[in-house]
Amino acid sequence: MTTLKSKLQEDLNAAIKERDELRSSTLRLTLAAITKEEVAGKEKRELSDDEVQKVIAKEAKKRREAAEAFGQGGRAEQAEREKAEGVILDAYLPKQLGDDELEQIVAQAVEEAKAAGAEGPRAMGAVMKIVNPKVAGRAEGGRVAAVVKQLLAG
User: Fold this and answer.
1) CA-to-CA distance for 112 and 53, rounded, in angstroms?
2) What is the number of alpha carbons within 13 Å of residue 110 lying toward its C-beta?
3) pLDDT of residue 154 exceeding 70
4) CA-based Rg of the chain, rounded to a whole angstrom?
5) Taking residues 122-143, what's their average pLDDT?
6) Torsion-angle region of residue 125: left (phi > 0), alpha (psi -120 to 50) or beta?
7) Burial class (CB in 10 A: 0-12, 13-18, 19+), 114
8) pLDDT per position as a tens digit, 38-54
9) Residues 15-30, buried b or exposed e (16+ Cβ, 10 A)?
């Protein structure tokens, strides 16, 4: 079974052969981030696919934030580049949840939390605890929290 990391490596080699500068530099940076994570602890270790996915998600989020910052700074070219790198990385992540799907999952979690006795603004933590494993990697934390707040506010 091919690991996600080896898939990235294979895709990098293909991108280099095809002289696809954008893809090869994006994958190179991502693999560097994965390696950095692997040597971060007391001893070097191989990351699981889930952990590799978390690194990719972090990298993709960085690209989105950078694209926004460049966009606001009037640097359209850099913003486009960051967006394009984000799109490349998104291909390695689980499909992101649509707003409706996310709202449904959160609404269900709110009901579960209420049934367990958590209500009002204090229920936020309880609801997030239920929602997070269900949406892991498929919706950004900030987006999830916003929907939870909205639904708890009623």
Assistant:
1) 28
2) 18
3) no
4) 19
5) 84
6) alpha
7) middle
8) 998 888 899 898 899 98
9) beeeebeebbebbeeb
